[in-house]
Amino acid sequence: MQIAQVRGTVVSTHKVPSMRGIKLLLVQYIDEEGQLLPKYEVAGDLIGAGVSEWVLISRGSAARIEVGQESKPLDATVVGIIDTVNVERNALYSKKEAERLL
Amino acid sequence: MQIAQVRGTVVSTHKVPSMRGIKLLLVQYIDEEGQLLPKYEVAGDLIGAGVSEWVLISRGSAARIEVGQESKPLDATVVGIIDTVNVERNALYSKKEAERLL
Amino acid sequence: MQIAQVRGTVVSTHKVPSMRGIKLLLVQYIDEEGQLLPKYEVAGDLIGAGVSEWVLISRGSAARIEVGQESKPLDATVVGIIDTVNVERNALYSKKEAERLL
Amino acid sequence: MQIAQVRGTVVSTHKVPSMRGIKLLLVQYIDEEGQLLPKYEVAGDLIGAGVSEWVLISRGSAARIEVGQESKPLDATVVGIIDTVNVERNALYSKKEAERLL
Amino acid sequence: MQIAQVRGTVVSTHKVPSMRGIKLLLVQYIDEEGQLLPKYEVAGDLIGAGVSEWVLISRGSAARIEVGQESKPLDATVVGIIDTVNVERNALYSKKEAERLL
């Protein structure tokens, strides 16, 4: 999985039937030092992730594993909202700390 | 999924039988700031996307999820025409606005 | 799918049993402006594509969708010989024109 | 598979149900000369790999092959802890040697 | 498929059960001009490829197509030892010639 930050939303009304009822987020990938990369994904969201939160993105057929997603044409899905990322015991990211700074 | 702009069409008459009846679009990927990338896809189109429209592209096995596409050798499909892309509440793209400017 | 030009052939006699009977082409990818990229694929060929022709390449599990290819370890297949590529109504490539110039 | 070094951990409490019970490691990819690359993966861990160990990462649907992982939305899994990497009979990496130097 | 040269071996004793009995080779990718790329794969080997040989690598689910490999977590497999690569009728590689020069 990759780490990404929720940046916004994508809306499409004219789409293939299998795309109906999917909430689409624009998420931007984050590198191993916590910086935004010039790389994004439009990912399906089942868990209500909000703008600026860090999330875990599963890609490929993994994006359709969750029950109810099998017949949706998803190649990327938000599978979790990240609480903490620790690298060698140092916190690279803490959701609590990030929210405190807002 | 990735955001792309429809740029043109690809025609192939001599092809494997499973490719019959697929309309092929040349779509060029768009980055997270709304600029064209030097990267494209030849994608199957089921929804009649037109030149210059922004579309959502599903890749990999996701490209064959829609009913009727399962036995086509597609690794990229147009799954929706994009109405709006919003990044932190600002509009990166609006189909209405784009059409007004044509 | 990606656009590629047939450049040559690859021969392998000592191989896994599932690879038997596959004709292998070396195809080089072409960018959205019609130039060769420093990127290639060794692709299975079912349709008899010839050197210098432009072809469509399907990758991933899409490469094994065609009837009879399901149990071959292919991750890239030539699925069509390209007649024309049009970008905003201009011809980026025309097979007829390319042959006339040879 | 790719070679990676375990760098840390990722914790997510609010996630899709299929993600429950997965231990997530942040692993950073290593190049063919043994150097860390600016590229990482958040990978599921079944074997208890520890920080600084070199591991093998399987990606894509391969990440869900192990019994019990089929219905988890994993696109990357630690499938082995590496003992040795030899390139043309020279040791690029030896776990024993690495531990001796700690 | 991609062309790669066998460079060495990888050994892992502590691994997931599905990884048992797989011989792992470190193979380095080769570009369309026959030069080594700074890109490698740890690939399963069923055919006994030796150091310095050029091989064909299948990736993704194609790596598990060969009978007996379906339940192994492989995302890359050596599917053939290459005899010749010809580009526009010139030999880019010949196994016989390579062995004569050793």
From TrEMBL, chains A, B, C, D, E:
Which biological process terms from the Gene Ontology are attached to this UniProt entry? Answer: carbon fixation; photosynthesis
Record's Gene3D superfamilies?
EutN/Ccml
Report which residue ranges the record marks as coiled coil: none
Q: Name one GO cellular component term.
A: carboxysome
Q: Which domain of life is it from?
A: Bacteria
Q: Which PROSITE patterns match?
A: BMV (PS51932)
Query: Which InterPro entries did the record assign?
Result: CcmL, EutN_CcmL, EutN_CcmL_sf
UniProt GO molecular function: structural constituent of carboxysome shell
Per the entry, what this protein does is: Probably forms vertices in the carboxysome, a polyhedral inclusion where RuBisCO (ribulose bisphosphate carboxylase, rbcL-rbcS) is sequestered. Has been modeled to induce curvature upon insertion into an otherwise flat hexagonal molecular layer of CcmK subunits.
The protein's assembly and partners:
Homopentamer. Interacts with full-length CcmM.
Q: What is known of its domains?
A: The tight homopentamer forms a pore with an opening of 4-5 Angstroms in diameter which opens into a wider tunnel at the base of the truncated pyramid. The pore is positively charged.
What protein name applies here?
Answer: Carboxysome shell vertex protein CcmL
